[in-house]
Each structure stands twice: as structure tokens, then as C-alpha cells.
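User: Show me a protein chain along with its predicted structure.
Assistant: Here is one chain, sequence first, then C-alpha cells.
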Amino acid sequence: MRQYSEIFPLILAAARLLRNKSHLEPEAQRVATALELYCTGSLNHFNHPTNVKTDSRVVCVVLKNMGENLRKIAMHICCLSALFE
């Protein structure tokens, strides 16, 4: 099973980058803290490489049965992945 993590960075990588920049930009610390829940907390479902081929012509993502907190971050990730393509 191929994993597509080389295309999309994990949320943890973004949080670490923001933590390293937090001494330069105070807002970076706030964003890194907000991402922590999605990196190591109970909502870390999206901090893993995907096995979905996201460069297909049509990709369907069903968010219907997700909890409200997961649905919000899932929509952001779907939008970001579309921008990376």
C-alpha cells in the first residue's frame, strides 16, 4: 500500500515549524498550540500519511458521520490538499 506523505506534510511537521518560529512571531505559538490537539491529542486521526490517491480525477470524502471537531479540521485538510494539487 503506497502512502502519499511525500506529497503532503503531516500536521505535526507544521506545528513543529510554527513552534520553532514562535520566538519570532507570537501568533505562531498560538497556532502551534491549537494544532497540538490534532497532532498528539485525541483528534490525531489526520496526523498520519494517507493511502488515498488524492491526485485522482474525482476524490470523494464523506464527512457525514464525523464528530463536529473532526469535521472542521477534515474540511480544512481537504481544502488544503486540493490547493497542493
